């Protein structure tokens, strides 16, 4: 197996009362697959900022990050090594406005109901199932374990 690259990704489970938001993707290799809002961390970008940005871009919602279920490491369907930082959050503003080219639908669903989905219906089902198990088992950690990105030497000199 050849390694294409290492990809850093953020993912967010957004809670609203007893339900979570899932999105239906329209990305290559993930057409019609359900996922939590997620995406790549851009070069130089703070991880926490990246998580909020990805949610806003894909869903139109503003979120406050409230915790983390941890870091997940897997080989993706495109043969990339993915290191995914997963967070939990709650809506603080905005309204659902999907990124139409990449997202074709959404649902608010009870977390335990995601267990009934078939593997082929979920993007990177192994990681999603680990996240669901961690959330259902209460294995979430404080968001404080992540430190905000330090300013660069150029920002300090301004």
From TrEMBL:
<dbReference type="InterPro" id="IPR015797">
    <property type="entry name" value="NUDIX_hydrolase-like_dom_sf"/>
</dbReference>
<dbReference type="InterPro" id="IPR000086">
    <property type="entry name" value="NUDIX_hydrolase_dom"/>
</dbReference>
<dbReference type="GO" id="GO:0016787">
    <property type="term" value="F:hydrolase activity"/>
</dbReference>
<keyword id="KW-0378">Hydrolase</keyword>
<protein>
    <submittedName>
        <fullName>NUDIX hydrolase</fullName>
    </submittedName>
</protein>
<dbReference type="Pfam" id="PF00293">
    <property type="entry name" value="NUDIX"/>
</dbReference>
<feature type="domain" description="Nudix hydrolase">
    <location>
        <begin position="5"/>
        <end position="132"/>
    </location>
</feature>
<comment type="similarity">
    <text>Belongs to the Nudix hydrolase family.</text>
</comment>
<dbReference type="InterPro" id="IPR020476">
    <property type="entry name" value="Nudix_hydrolase"/>
</dbReference>
């Amino acid at each position: 197996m050849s390694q294409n690259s290492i990809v850093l990704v953020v993912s967010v489970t957004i809670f609203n009362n007893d339900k979570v938001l899932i999105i239906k993707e329209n990305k290559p290799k993930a057409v019609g697959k359900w996922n939590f809002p997620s995406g790549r961390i851009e070069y130089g970008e703070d991880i926490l900022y990246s998580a909020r940005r990805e949610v806003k871009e894909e869903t139109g919602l503003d979120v406050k990050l409230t915790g983390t279920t941890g870091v997940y490491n897997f080989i993706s369907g495109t043969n990339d090594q993915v290191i995914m930082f997963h967070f939990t959050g709650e809506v603080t503003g905005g309204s659902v406005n999907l990124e139409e080219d990449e997202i074709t639908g959404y649902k608010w669903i009870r977390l335990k109901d995601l267990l009934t989905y078939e593997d082929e219906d979920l993007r990177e089902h192994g990681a999603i199932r680990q996240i669901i198990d961690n959330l259902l088992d209460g294995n979430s950690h404080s968001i404080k374990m992540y430190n905000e990105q330090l300013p660069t030497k150029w920002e300090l000199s301004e």
